[in-house]
């Protein structure tokens, strides 16, 4: 059970929110923090422009957070074997030009690596009512490709319009209906809708040099709706944060872990990536910690959903201002993490099968010492002197172990035995790991110098 945050933490968070509302001149701002799958703190400041004050159940337009729902629907198609990430989208939308967007793969579109143009050629789609698929289709020829698919990060709202149509076409019903049935209803997200339902904040622009506001338009984006249509609340997005954290049953854990993996990185500014894009999720590299989620903006609104993938802690923040709130969400999440870090889980013994127990302990990759440990899920391999390639491993059948991450992700570890059945060495992606450095009895490729270890001469 989650313990409520301390009064001092609550006060600090409320002060941060109030200060941001004033400094950034936000008509209203609401935020919430998630821990262990529960909404443990909410705060609000300002006015929504309607009678009700802002709160955790007030709707705001969440913009591109919509993309995370569309991506989840695509990945459910992958889970069900109806679509593959390697499929060109033309395999499912046959009317697409094979020389244009039709040749981009589903995975490239999800990862913002398809090279597809960012916006439509027509009127500013975020401020004008959209037409159906027939209005978007003529824009998807060869001229829509701004970059060679798969070569670089290029954020595309148009690409998610295509993905929304793909979901609807394969499922045989509108993508909105699919998202409702697969995610919103099972998660109890009753306040997440395609158009605003009261109480809902009014979208506003704040004049840059005067304390006055201007109402922004609200509309149905039509074929572009998958890029930014949804309205939601802090309370509902806290439920969606459990999906992004990989702790919900509506998507397999392995599917969500794939969403976290960067498909493209945004290194245009300084050459060192701090943000990128997974499969339908933004990913951030923050001081060595991996965060995943999505920002969102539409005229009159800015939103953020962000989760620390190591702990599951998350933040949701919503405002009804076109210009938004800067790094407030990250600061709120860091404040909770710093003030109230997770308590370590108690150590308890667990069963270790005999074939795994046989593999634990020191091994050597040439002269480099490595350590294999048993975990409840499998094995880990790590360097013993701060160097060396490592990975987690799980069973792959027939006595094999498959790497999950780092250098050996997807590679096989195979215990090798003598004719008498004695463990001789480990074969890891053709490398020999031996119980002593360059064990001459372990069939080390290239052989071992018969003189053995000697002083330099």
UniProtKB/TrEMBL annotation:
Domain DUF7586 span(s) in chain numbering: 352-435
UniProt xrefs under Gene3D superfamilies: DD-peptidase/beta-lactamase superfamily
Beta-lactamase-related domain boundaries: 15-327
Top-level taxon in the UniProt lineage: Bacteria
PANTHER family (alphabetical): D-ALANYL-D-ALANINE CARBOXYPEPTIDASE (PTHR46825:SF7), D-ALANYL-D-ALANINE-CARBOXYPEPTIDASE/ENDOPEPTIDASE AMPH (PTHR46825)
Protein name in the entry: CubicO group peptidase (Beta-lactamase class C family)
Species whose genome carries this gene: Kineococcus rhizosphaerae
């Amino acid at each position: 059970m989650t313990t409520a945050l301390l009064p001092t933490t609550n006060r600090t968070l409320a002060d941060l929110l109030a200060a941001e509302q004033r400094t950034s001149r936000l008509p209203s701002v609401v935020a919430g923090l998630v821990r262990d799958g529960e909404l443990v703190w909410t705060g609000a400041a300002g006015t929504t422009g309607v009678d009700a004050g802002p709160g955790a159940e007030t709707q705001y337009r969440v913009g591109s957070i919509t993309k995370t729902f569309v991506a989840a629907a695509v990945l459910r198609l992958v889970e069900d074997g109806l679509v593959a990430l390697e499929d060109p989208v033309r395999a499912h939308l046959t009317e697409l030009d094979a020389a244009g967007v039709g040749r981009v793969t589903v995975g490239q579109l999800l990862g913002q690596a398809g090279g597809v143009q960012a916006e439509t050629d027509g009127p500013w789609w975020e401020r004008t009512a959209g037409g159906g698929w027939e209005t978007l289709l003529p824009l998807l020829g060869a001229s829509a490709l701004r970059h060679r698919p798969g070569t670089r990060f290029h954020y595309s709202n148009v690409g998610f319009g295509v993905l929304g149509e793909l979901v609807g076409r394969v499922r045989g019903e509108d993508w909105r209906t699919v998202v409702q049935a697969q995610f919103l209803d099972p998660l109890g997200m009753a306040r997440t809708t395609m158009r605003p339902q009261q109480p809902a904040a009014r979208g506003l622009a704040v004049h840059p040099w005067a304390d006055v506001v201007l109402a922004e338009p609200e509309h149905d984006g039509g074929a572009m709706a998958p890029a930014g249509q949804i309205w939601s609340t802090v309370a509902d997005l806290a439920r969606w944060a459990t999906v992004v954290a990989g702790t919900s049953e509506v998507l397999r854990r392995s599917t969500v872990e794939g969403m976290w993996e960067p498909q493209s990185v945004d290194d245009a500014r300084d050459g060192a990536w701090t943000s990128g894009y997974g499969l339908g999720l933004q990913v951030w590299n923050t001081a060595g910690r991996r965060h995943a989620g999505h920002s969102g903006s539409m005229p009159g609104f800015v939103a953020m959903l962000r989760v620390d993938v190591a702990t599951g802690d998350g933040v949701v923040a919503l405002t009804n201002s076109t210009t938004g709130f800067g790094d407030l969400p990250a600061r709120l999440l860091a404040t909770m993490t710093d003030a109230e870090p997770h308590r370590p889980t108690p150590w308890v013994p667990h069963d270790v099968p005999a074939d795994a127990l046989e593999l634990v302990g020191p091994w050597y990759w040439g002269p480099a010492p490595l350590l294999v440990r048993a975990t409840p899920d499998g094995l880990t391999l790590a360097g013993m002197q701060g160097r060396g390639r490592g990975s987690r491993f799980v069973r792959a059948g027939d006595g094999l172990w498959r790497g999950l991450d780092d250098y050996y992700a997807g590679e096989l570890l195979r215990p090798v035995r003598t004719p008498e059945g004695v463990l001789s060495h480990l074969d890891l992606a053709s490398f020999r790991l031996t119980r002593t450095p360059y064990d001459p009895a372990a069939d080390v490729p290239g052989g071992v110098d018969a003189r053995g270890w000697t002083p330099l001469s």
